[in-house]
């Protein structure tokens, strides 16, 4: 099997541009479903900045986002959640277009677990090439990298299209 260690969420996070990391960090802190990962991020920020946890919690969203976006190391769980939030908020049309080209039923870019179907390699490659022709390279490669990191069994073939 291919070595997919380059697709760990923390590595994808580091490869993102500063602007994308900042956008993803803002969405991460604003997401009410990310509480567990936010607690982990607060602890990491407090340790890194030598702040009390309470002080980090009290920071305005913009400051927390800036600090998270510039943190030297982010855990895979925090990075994974931030990547998912980023794609759900900023990349839904691209996600929907990709799933449409694969013929996978979805609701606004989200696959219903019951409808999860693994596409064959040829179909996956054709859909990947189609998406790459329609959307910016950085968007497509980050999306594919995120898919590979989330479910390598289903999306591992996209590794060739994602950042390394």
Account of the 3D structure:
The structure is a single chain. The protein is mainly alpha-helical. It has 2 domains: 5-89, no CATH class; 92-157, no CATH class. The chain contains 10 helices and 2 strands, in the order αααααααββααα. It has helices at 9-15, 18-30, 35-49, 53-58, 61-70, 76-90, 92-102, 121-134, 137-150, 152-155, and strands spanning 106-107, 110-111. A two-stranded antiparallel ribbon has the order 1-2. Helix 7 (92-102) packs antiparallel against helix 8 (121-134). The protein is elongated, with a radius of gyration of 17 Å. The two termini are 16 Å apart.
List keywords for this structure.
164 residues; two-stranded antiparallel sheet; 2 domains; mainly alpha; 10 helices
